[in-house]
Amino acid sequence: MKLMYVTLLSLAIFSCKHQGEMSIQEAKQVTVDSMRMAMEKQKVIDSMNLEMDKAKASVKAEKEVIVVNQPATSTNTTTTTVTEKKKMSSAAKGALIGAGVGAITGAAVSSKKGEGAIIGGLAGAGVGAGTGAIIDGSKKNK
Predict the structure, then answer these.
(1) What residues contact 65, with CB distance under 8 A and at least 6 apart?
(2) Average pLDDT of each block of 10 consecutive residues along the chain (142 residues)?
(3) Are 103 and 124 in contact (CB under 8 A)?
């Protein structure tokens, strides 16, 4: 019986020792692989940022206002303007986001899902609009 215990113990020690060596090699390989993946992801992010910068530069070039005036001898003057899209205010954004979050939270918390979603949506829209109005006010003061 003692011989069997000694044999099992020695097998466990040898198998653990061999497994430790293999896991170190595997850990090194996993680390190298993860570093390679991180570098690849960073390359993709950098290329996307470069493309976004190019797109922003082309949009800015398109938004330039060009005014052409002909000499005073002619009665025709030509003016070309480009109108920009009006951006959504922070109050409107806050109301939309607050309504969505409030509706989801209200439906999750309430036993009556529809009623909870409506009440949560209204409360969230009010809080979001108020927060957005505060942000708009702080932007105007700058």
Answers:
(1) 80, 81, 82
(2) 78 61 74 85 84 76 61 56 73 87 88 87 88 85 76
(3) yes
